[in-house]
Prior knowledge:
Blueprint: E1 9-13, H1 18-29, E2 33-38, H2 41-53, E3 58-62, H3 68-82, E4 87-90, H4 106-133, E5 137-142, H5 155-175, E6 180-187, H6 193-201, H7 203-212, H8 221-232, E7 243-246
Parallel strand pairs: 1-2, 1-4, 2-3, 4-5, 5-6, 6-7
Helix pairs in contact: 1-2, 1-8, 3-4, 4-5, 6-7
This protein binds 1,4-dihydronicotinamide adenine dinucleotide.
Residues 13-14, 16-20, 38-40, 43, 63-66, 91-94, 115, 142, 144, 187, 189-190, 192-195 line the site of 1,4-dihydronicotinamide adenine dinucleotide (NAI).
Amino acid sequence: MSEEFKGKVVLVSGAGSGIGREAALLFARQGAMVFGADLSEKGLSETQELAREAAGTIQAALVDVSKETEVAALIKRIDQEAGRLDAAFNNAGITGGTFRLEDYPTDDFDRVLSVNLRSVFLAMKYELPLLKRSGGGTIVNTASVAALTGPGGMSAYAASKHGVQGLTRVAAMENAAQNIRINAIAPGWTETPMVIANSAQNPAFAELARKAIPAKRGGQPSEIAAAAVWLSSPQSSYVFGQMLVVDGGMTI
Length: 252
Ligand code: NAI
């Protein structure tokens, strides 16, 4: 494994599960000092245990990414403990329920927008000054193929992920000249706990979904994490403001 992130300080949100966990482990294996943020204490300690087995370290931060005071305190802590920030992967998210728009509970709509979109705004708002003081860096935000399509029943989720793409573009435009690259990833059907739980409840639907993917399988969290890590690395040094779709061909 390369030492591409040796000496770098990286923040990953949603590090207690799925895509965020795999990304945190990958950054740690490549030498980064990783701060893993999540709501789940149990998830974070499992990720830390996995990192120890791979001889890396992850600093756990119990944070609700939709709360401004908590995000501000997290960035302050990173500044105090590490003195810099080189890369952020703003990835925590939820799907919300499935309802036709006219039946969508307004409180649920607000909650999904808050966790998936407001969080990305807050994260970037507080990460950018520290990235600038560190001489530049990268941000990757997690959108979804739902940023490109209109999946029936998922108005809140699709709106939030379309919003993530918009925020990513604006932030990339505003900061490109300051040595800060900001991009997004758009995963397709990825076999994380979020999707596995839904599939267990509805196996016939899960089977149909997999068949509809040109690659005929769901993605592994590590395959999505690899794309996020690549966008955070110097290997993608001329990629600005893009949304990289990683979906087994689902949106071809
Ligand atoms: P997951 O459920 O395995 O992991 C999400 C993590 O985010 C969990 O550890 C959870 O505790 C944390 N989280 C949720 N709300 C939080 C909050 N308010 N503050 C801090 N942490 C919070 O899900 P997965 O699949 O790894 O999702 C990661 C991202 O990928 C999400 O943004 C999701 O929308 C996106 N995505 C996932 C797809 C999939 O098929 N799994 C497809 C497209 C996008």
